[in-house]
């Protein structure tokens, strides 16, 4: 008889020594390894410790029968699947139904013949191979879906979070900061006179400018929950959890300083020879009435004020000052 291409480890469970030894001999003659167990409770422990590929399980055993053992094995697998073949002289319709209901996969009538056992084991091997392929395909599909999900939330040009991801993250952080009782800062940023940049330098240069500003924003988001995103066109968003009003203004000044040091040339800005940003900031401890839409409206209103005051600055919606007015040396002692 041809030997199987894959050798299995088979757990044989039978309280009677002679049938157990006959089953063991038949399995070993087919080129498989055997684990023996005479006690139903011990069989469950052997199954958990040794993790066999297949179980041959006698039905009629004292105290705990084979149906009980099958139920214990299925409960222990937690999503896995190990084929269970019942060995029994009982093979009526009701017996088969009870076995399948308990978690078994097939019946082999006693006395066991090597030819029938070989056929059953090969059938189980085919099912195991099919299941392994399905699991492999499922994992490949899961990874592909995860990659698509990630790509669907990233702005293709800048690599920052896109508008969809920003909206989702903002809702999450509102809920999180509400639970934690912590302040949440949201900032909307515009590259000053970006249309004039594109008109003078061209869209290829404009895209490169967006990428450089995006890189700077990404580098300034140092904490795990800080998020920088592109909201559309030349507009960017910063979500800064656990950032109070004063801290947000300090962050904004540092960002403007880093952009100044980057010295990105602007070909046609009335504000500066370099690329500059205007930003609107809003900060609050979210409550039951706080919404993403409300925060965005306040940040947009603050952005409008920053532009009205001369651009190249951030304006705080709550503090009613900008980063020029709020410099430390202007603060009263």
TrEMBL record:
E.C. numbers: 2.7.7.65
GO cellular component: plasma membrane
GO BP term, pick one: phosphorelay signal transduction system
Enzyme class name: transferase
Annotated InterPro entries: CheY-like_superfamily (IPR011006), Diguanylate_Cyclase (IPR050469), GGDEF_dom (IPR000160), Nucleotide_cyclase (IPR029787), Rev_trsase/Diguanyl_cyclase (IPR043128), Sig_transdc_resp-reg_receiver (IPR001789)
Signal peptide start and end residues: none
Ranges in coiled-coil conformation: 124-154
The GGDEF domain, residue ranges: 182-319
Catalytic activity: 2 GTP = 3',3'-c-di-GMP + 2 diphosphate
Domain Response regulatory, chain residue ranges per copy: 9-125
Modification 4-aspartylphosphate occurs at: 58
Highest taxon, organism lineage: Bacteria
Annotated keywords: Coiled coil, Phosphoprotein
One function term, GO molecular function aspect: diguanylate cyclase activity
Pfam hit, one: GGDEF
Protein name per its UniProtKB record: diguanylate cyclase
Organism, as annotated: Inhella crocodyli
């Amino acid at each position: 008889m041809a030997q199987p291409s894959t050798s299995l480890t088979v757990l044989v469970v039978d309280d009677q020594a002679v049938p157990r030894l006959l089953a063991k001999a038949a399995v070993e003659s087919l080129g498989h390894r055997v684990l023996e167990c005479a006690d139903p409770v011990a069989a469950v422990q052997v199954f958990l410790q040794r993790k066999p590929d297949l179980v041959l399980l006698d039905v009629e055993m004292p105290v705990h029968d084979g149906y009980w053992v099958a139920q214990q094995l299925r409960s222990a697998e937690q999503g896995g699947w190990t084929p269970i073949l019942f060995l029994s002289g009982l093979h009526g319709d009701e017996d088969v139904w009870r076995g399948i209901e308990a978690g078994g996969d097939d019946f082999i009538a006693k006395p066991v013949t090597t030819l029938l056992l070989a056929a059953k084991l090969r059938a189980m091997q085919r099912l195991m191979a099919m299941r392994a392929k399905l699991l492999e395909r499922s994992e490949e599909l899961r990874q592909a879906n995860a990659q698509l999900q990630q790509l669907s939330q990233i702005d293709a040009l800048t690599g920052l979070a896109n508008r969809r991801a920003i909206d989702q993250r903002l809702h999450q952080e509102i809920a999180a900061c509400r639970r934690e009782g912590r302040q949440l800062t949201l900032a909307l940023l515009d590259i000053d006179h970006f249309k004039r940049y594109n008109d003078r330098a061209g869209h290829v240069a404009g895209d490169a400018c967006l990428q450089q500003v995006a890189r700077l924003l990404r580098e300034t988001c140092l904490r795990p929950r800080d998020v920088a995103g592109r909201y559309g066109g030349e507009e960017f968003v910063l979500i800064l959890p656990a950032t109070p009003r004063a801290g947000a203004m300090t962050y904004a000044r540092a960002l403007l300083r880093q952009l100044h040091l980057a010295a990105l040339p602007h070909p046609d800005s009335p504000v500066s020879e370099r690329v500059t940003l205007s930003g609107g900031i809003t900060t609050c401890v979210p409550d039951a009435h706080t919404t993403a839409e409300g925060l965005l409206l306040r940040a947009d209103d603050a952005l409008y004020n920053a532009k009205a005051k001369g651009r190249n600055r951030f304006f705080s919606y709550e503090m009613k000052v900008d980063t020029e007015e709020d410099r430390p040396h202007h603060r009263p002692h």
